[in-house]
Structure formats: C-alpha cells, structure tokens
Amino acid sequence: MQHKLAELIDVEKTQEILVRFLGAVGIPAAIIDLDGKVLVATRWQRICTDFHRVNPATCKRCIESDTILANDLRQGKSFSLYRCLTGLTNAASPIVIGGGHLANAFIGQFLSEKPDMDFFSRQADEFGFDKSAYFQALSEVPILAPDVLPSILSLLTSFAEMIANLGLKQLRQLEIEKELQRARDKLQIQNEELSASEEELRAQNVELLLSREQIETLSRFPDENPSPVWRITADGRLLYSNEAARRLMPRREGWREGGNVPPFWRRVAAEAFAGGTSNTLDARMDKKVFSLAVVPVLDKDYVNIYATDITERKQMEDELLRAKQEWERTFDSVPDLIAILDPQHRIIRANRQMARRIGLEPERCVGLVCHECVHNLPAAPEICPHQRTVRDGREHIAEVYEERLGGHFLVSTTPLRDEHGAITGTVHVARDITERKQMEEELRKSRDELEARVQERTADLAEAVARLERINQELQEFAFAASHDLQEPLRKIQSFCDLIVRSNLDKLDEKGKDYLTRMQEAAKRMRQLLKDLLNYSRVGSQPLPFQQADMKAIITEAAEVFEHRIARTGGKIIISEMPVIEADSSQMTRLFQNLISNAVKYANPQGLLIRIYSDREDSFCRIYVEDNGIGFDEKYLDRIFSPFQRLHGRTEFSGTGMGLAICRKIVERHSGSITAKSSPGKGSTFIVTLPVRQKKGAVRGSRQS
Known about the structure:
The protein has 705 residues and is α+β, with helices and mostly antiparallel strands. The chain has five domains: 5-172, Beta-Lactamase; 208-334, 2-Layer Sandwich (Beta-Lactamase), CATH 3.30.450; 339-432, PAS domain (Beta-Lactamase); 434-541, Helix Hairpins (Orthogonal Bundle); 544-705, Heat Shock Protein 90 (2-Layer Sandwich). It has a five-stranded antiparallel beta sheet with strand order 2-1-5-4-3, sandwiched between helices. Strand 19 (609-617) and strand 20 (620-627) form a beta hairpin.
C-alpha cells in the first residue's frame, strides 16, 4: 500500500523541529510532496521575501531555480545543488520511504562563498532595490562551504525519513494488532472447544501423555500465538514452547520439551525466581532482537517468557541515535554562536562556538543567565531580542556590539513552543559581523574622503573653467578688436595702391609694377584673412537665439550662392529631406556655405557632384555633405579643423585655412560635433551631428559690441 508522506509524519511536530533547524543553522528548509504541496516550511531569508520574491523579474528567476531542483530529483539524483540567477544557492534531496519517492527536502537561500558585492550592487540597480536595505538583508544570508551542504541536507532528509518510517511502523503495528485481535478471537473459540473436550476425555479415562498442567499450558498458549512463548521450570527444564518459539529455536539438545534449556535461559529463569518479580531484557536470536518479558509463577516453580520482536524498533532507535549524533556535530560545527534560552534567560544549551566565546565548555554553560555571563548586566537590555520574542512570540533581529564576545553581532531569536503553543524559550543565534562592520567603516571613510576630494577637485575645476572662460573671452575680444581695427590701415594700403595704379602706373618700370601687384594681392589676402578671423570670433560673441530651423530651407539657401559656379562646370548638388531642429539659422547658413564652398573648391576636374542627406538617432540628427572631389588623407583629420591650417599651397587652391575652423566652432556652440571620412582621389564626406532640441540652459554665447 502506497502512503502519502502527510499520513506518516506528525506535521506540527516536524514544523517545530524545522523551525529549530532554522534557528540552529540559519538556513530555511521545507518538505514538499510530489503534488507540490508544502507540508512543512520555515520562513525564507528576508532578501527573498522582501526583494527577490516581490519583484516579478527576480521572482521568475527564483521559480526557475525551484523547477530545476525538482526536475533533477525526478531524474533519480540523490542530491541537487543550483545557484539561482539572483545569486543565492539552493539545494534539495529526495525523501524515499520503503523504496518509494514520496517528497523532497529543500534548503535554500544561502551562499557558498563571500558575496560578490559588485554583482548584488548591479542587481539592486537593475531592479530598483533600496541598496542599504538590500545589503542589510544580504548580510543575514549564511555562508556555507559546499562540502558542508550534503551533510546538512542529509540530516534534514534522514530526519524526515525517520519520522515517516516511524509513522509507517505505527501503521504496520495497527495492522498487526488487528491480526492479533483476530487470532485472540480464534483462540477464544479454541479454548471453549478445549474446555468442552476436557469433560469428554475425563469420562473416557484415556491415558494421556500430557499432564493436566500441560493441557492448561496448551490452552493458554496455543500455537496460533504469533509471538514466541516459553515455559521453563525453576531447575531449567522446558515445559512448553509454541510454534513461533519452535521456529526460532531449532530442535536440538536443550530445546526439547522436558529437556534442559541452554545456560543463558537457565540463568534467566533462576534470576527471575531469585528476584521474585517480573523483569524484561533484550536478547538477539536468529539475527533479530527480542524483548523478553520474564514472569515467574512462584507457586508452580516455573516462569513464563513472552518474546516481542523489536528489531525494527531497535533499528529506529539506532537511526535516531545516529541522527542525534549528526545533529550534535552540525550544531557544534556551525560558525554562528547558538544558544537555547528559557524564558528566564537561562542557557539550556550552547554550541561550541558560543561556549568558546564565553570561555567555558558547552556543558558548563547550562544554567548560566545570558545577560550576566555575556553582557555582565544585572538585567537584560531593552533591545534584547530574546526578551522581545518571549514577550510577543515573534522572531526578532538586532545588531549588537559586545566587547566580551569580541565584536559586532547580528542576533536573531526564534520562539520555541510546547504542544499547547506556550513559549518555552528561544533559539538565540549570533552571527559575527565584525569584519563586515569594519569594511563598512572603511567604506564610509573612503566615501567621505572621496567626497572631500571630489569637492576639492570640483572647486579646482570650476576655478579652472572660469579662468579658461575669461581667457577665451579675452581672446575673442582681442580677435574681434584686432580684426576690426586692422581693417582701417589695410583699407588705406589698398586705397594708396589703387591710387598709384590709376595715376602713376606709367611711371613705374616692370619691377615696380610687379612689386605693386604683389602688394595688392597681399593686401587682398590680408583683408580676407581679417574677415575670416572676424567671422570666427563672432561665432561665440554675436549669436542669435536658438529657434526652430528648417534645415532643408537653410541648406538650399546656402547652396544658391554657388548655383551659377556649379552650373558652369556642369556639376550637380542634390539635397534630400532634412529635419527641423533648434538652431541659430544664420550660423547654420554659414556652416553649410563653408562646407559647400569647400566641396566646390576641391572639386573633381571630371565633374562635380555634391549630395547632402541626413538621418536621425534618438535625439540627434546627422547631416552628410558628400562630394566626389580630390579628397585627403585622414591622418590630417584633426588638423583641417584648426585655424589657419591648410593641406595645399596658395598657388594650388585659394583660401585662408579658417573655413573648417569656423564650421567646428559653430557646431560646438550648438552642442554638436563635426568629422569627416575621406581618402585621396575618392572624395570626402563631412558629417555634422546636431541635437534636435537644445538643452535648457545651454551656453549660447554673449553678444559683444
């Protein structure tokens, strides 16, 4: 008959023992049958109940861990260990009774090594956990070496199997008692038949080999009795043995009725007569263990010996002893300080770690008052978690610093109750968190020191930025003033040169005319250079406010300046759809005039083709100005955007080297960037990246007079 585990165990008693298991080793545990029903379970770690099992994403990971463990056990594994995606470790083992897999024992939510704080920090950020509370819950999770796990789970599994086996034995015992009752009823009928036949035998006067005493013996102890029964005289002769006894004791010398029994049995009978009272003893026979009830009948000089097979009970007792010893080893091997306290704060039991911190052997701790021997106080402090648990019957946790125990401790107390629910004490577990506290203090100091350094560095940077802004402002003002003020003497030089050409050119020889032509060209270049320098300085000093700007209209307007020049060379410019962005329209026009001018200047002699198109990514747009011109080597990429930088001589291409520098300054003022891709002879593509919307409070420059 296949039984369910719930029919074989005392659920309430097992639940109480699991709670003590949690209090002793700090690891949640559960027993779940194959239908998924939780028969008994302790509370989970707070990091799971308050965080992992609450968040839908992390809860899904927890369920995945439970499923993997259960599936492993269905495949016949005796032990399964799995590290959940949330970073904690769970384990499980099957509970097998009478060859049948009835349930699984689970332990979980522990660590097999020190936690990876970076991993849990990232996990807190990813799922929005409060880091302080999350790390506090993480600190409560026990750390167990992998080689300890099988023994702990084996203890839990063995205990559950032991309880179930006891239940199974009880069911079998009930079945045996029913069989015995049927046998008694049958014996009663046989006794009545024997009583009736006794009168008939006496009337017939048949000589019987058995005495009346033997008849009475047979009537009292018929062969149908399933348990062995012997009747032995005071001098050691066997008067009677039933069928069960004869099967147990082969017929040999000493076990024939009327014969002398072996020395052991003579001694048993003699001691019973000497004592004059009934007694019991255990004896091994035929690889089994029996409990012998020896009942002397003093007035008739014999003893009745009733044997009960207690082999299974002895095996269970041995299993209980082994489980107790394993429990003792586990209790003493746990690194936490564990004590079981009564409601008066007296220590009922302490593990070896607790006793070592107090400075005594475990057995000498029994009876000591906790707040006296640990805290050296006449009464328990108000924050004492044991006192609070005794008061309200709930679990309590507190951080305590105790110099006598050597540091900081995380103390938890779990109530112990009797069968009526009354609190009989608590399991008091203290975990040494001194190292963690020291790390927290070091972290706090490092954080404070870093914050101080950051503030100091921020102040230095702010001062440096302010100084650079002043210098930049002064340079802009200087460039503006210099380019503006130098225009006047340059105009005079140009005017005098023109006057000489108009009035005195015929008086100059060829050499003088050459000098005059060079002077005019130099003045012209100087004038263009000053104009470009003035434009460069005005980018940041005379800006217009950012407004909605239709980039296609702006680029089209910029291209119209070169329309006739492009048409004369048979070239073409193609402008695709463009975005509308926040920008200074006048500076955008100048930006693309410079880029188109650059493409026209360095055009391919075979024909000019300029393509201007765009794309968008998130809050930024990119505008591409692509040509089929002479191109350049990208190793000069940074150089071409610097002021006065040219890759070609003035005799090859005209210009001052300021066009692309002005482009970069305009783009940077708009919080964007500009770059280019090119190779010699294969054209160039200039890429302008600009925000679609300008940030509030963006630096837009200041107007200068």
